[in-house]
Structure formats: C-alpha cells, structure tokens
Design a protein that fits this description.
alpha/beta, 305 residues, six-stranded mixed beta sheet, 14 strands, four-stranded antiparallel beta sheet
C-alpha cells in the first residue's frame, strides 16, 4: 500500500526536554489515522513538524512523497492543516478569510468562488459569510478553520484537536464531515484526547511522553491491552478451578459475575457452554463486553516502565 505519511526516527528536543522521542510512523493513503494521548504527549509538536512549521532535531519526514522540510513548498499545496487554536484573521469576514487563503493556494476567479460557496454550504456557514470572523461563536470559528483547511481540496488533511472545546452535537457533525471527506479519498490524520472519537479511526497510534506506545485498529488495541476479547458471564457455581483468564469477579446475591478474556470470541464462545457444564457451573447469561479506548489507554499506559 502507498503511504501518505512516512516518519522515521523523528525527534524534537527543547534543551534537555525531549518532546518527541524517535517516532516511527506510517499512515496509509485513504485512511483516517488518529494520534491519541494526554496533553504533553507530543502530538502537536509532531503535527507541527509534519507541516514544516518546526524543524526536527533528528529523523526524517516524507509527506505524499515529498521530504519535509526540504520540499515543504511542494507538499503544502496538497496538505490541509487545521491548527489547535484559531489563527485566522478576525477582522476579515468568513468569506474574505476563505478567499484570502484560496488565493494563497493559487485559486482565483470563478473556480475560487465556486469552491468557497460549496464549502460554506457544506459547513453550514452560508448565512454567516459576511460576518467578521472575530464575531463568530467558538463552534463557527472551528467550522471556518476547517473550511480554510479544505479550500484547496487537499489530498491530506491534518487536524490538531479539531473538536476541542466544542459541544457534543458539533463534535458529531465534525466527524460526519470527516467521514464524508474520507469517502471522497482524503487521507486524514487527526489528534484528539477524546477517546470516544477515536473509534471513528481506521487505525490509532497511542502516544505518551513523546513515544508511540501502541498502534493498530481500535479492535487490535483492545485485544492487545487485554490479551483478547472480553466477555461477561453470570453464573452459579465455584469458579476457582475454571480454566479461564479472569479479569475480575463480583457477587450479586447468589450469582457470580465474571469478566474473562478469550483469545478469539468468535471461535471460543460456543465452547464456553460445554466448559461450564463440565465444571458443574450453571450459566445464567454471557455477553461480549465493549471495552472503551479510554480503558485501553489507561492499561497500556500503566504497563510502561
């Protein structure tokens, strides 16, 4: 598969502080890749180096085949970047901001006008096109920033905490935008500390203290953290000798509730019934447990020495 982003040994130091520590990462063309981690994990520093806004201390970056920062001018025409903080011109209107940045990317005339009007409609900003950016609500500023990032129809969209500080309904709308863009072929790299949002990503990289501690699809990371698929059993009987990897148990009257791990739920769950029966354990119910990415991150983070 072709890569939109290739990073090798990427490192950024500020004096003695290592913000990004020998990061290796490849993002496939056409995927939504999420970079997760707590504040201070190195996500924004990584993004800024990818966009050529900050020079790395060590390592190499290739974006859509271009070496960064050496070929930044060529690469930037194919990258849409939405910064964590609103950085557009507050004394220009919504339309003027989009027009200004469109011209910077070489768009003009009817092509630029059509592109702006399409994005205004897409982002539900048409009725606010003549409002000064500084007079917009926080959510509308975020939509405008996304519109500016999309003005030149980029192949790669880099989003740094795009939904930070916005209400849940707008967060949902943004992810609808992102999925529709991805279906049209746009590769998306998004940083977030909202673990529920990361379920929308094809693959996820978990960062902590400048390092990539795990990478994979949401399901792969859940299996990695817990050693397989988690199920919950409600049973009656003695479980002490039961040959299962048990995470936790609790009692509710005469019923024991057990959380256990199977290597592969699709293959092993049918055998659970026979296993319990052979140990004279009565099964009340069994169901798969949807582990949250927050639980995964906490567990993987706790395993770091």
């Amino acid at each position: 598969m072709e890569y939109a982003i290739e990073i090798s040994g990427l490192t950024k130091k500020f004096g003695d502080f290592i913000a990004v520590d020998h990061l290796d990462l490849k993002v496939y063309k056409g995927e939504i890749f999420g970079l997760l981690g707590p504040n201070g994990a190195g996500k924004t520093t990584t993004i800024r180096m990818l966009c050529g806004l900050m020079a790395p201390t060590e390592g190499s970056i290739k974006i859509l085949g271009y070496n960064i920062p050496e070929q930044r001018n060529e690469a930037i025409r194919k990258i849409g970047y939405m910064a964590q903080r609103f950085s557009l011109y507050e004394d220009l209107t919504v339309y003027e901001n989009m027009e200004f940045y469109g011209r910077l990317y070489g768009l003009k005339g009817s092509l630029l006008r059509e592109r702006i009007l399409k994005l205004l409609d897409f982002l539900e900003l048409s009725e606010f096109k003549d409002r000064l950016a500084g007079k917009l609500s926080g959510g509308m500023k975020q939509r405008l920033a996304l519109g500016v990032a999309l003005i030149h129809n980029p192949s790669l969209l880099i989003l740094d905490e795009p939904t930070a500080g916005v209400d849940p309904s707008l967060r949902r709308a943004f992810w609808n935008y992102f999925r529709s863009l991805n279906k049209e072929g746009t590769t998306i790299l998004v940083t977030t500390h909202y673990m529920d949002e990361a379920e929308n990503c094809d693959r996820i990289g978990l960062m902590s203290k400048g390092k990539l501690i795990a990478i994979g699809s949401p399901r792969e990371l859940k299996r990695k953290a817990f050693g397989g698929d988690v199920i919950e059993l409600k049973i009656k009987g003695d479980i002490d000798s039961l040959p299962l990897k048990i995470l936790e148990t609790r009692k509710e009257n005469d019923i024991t509730i057990v959380r256990a791990v199977l290597n592969d739920i699709s293959k092993e769950l049918p055998n659970i019934f026979n296993l319990l029966d052979s140990y004279n354990i009565k099964l009340i119910s069994v169901e798969p447990i949807n582990i949250s990415l927050e639980e995964v991150f906490i567990k993987l983070l706790g395993e770091i020495p």
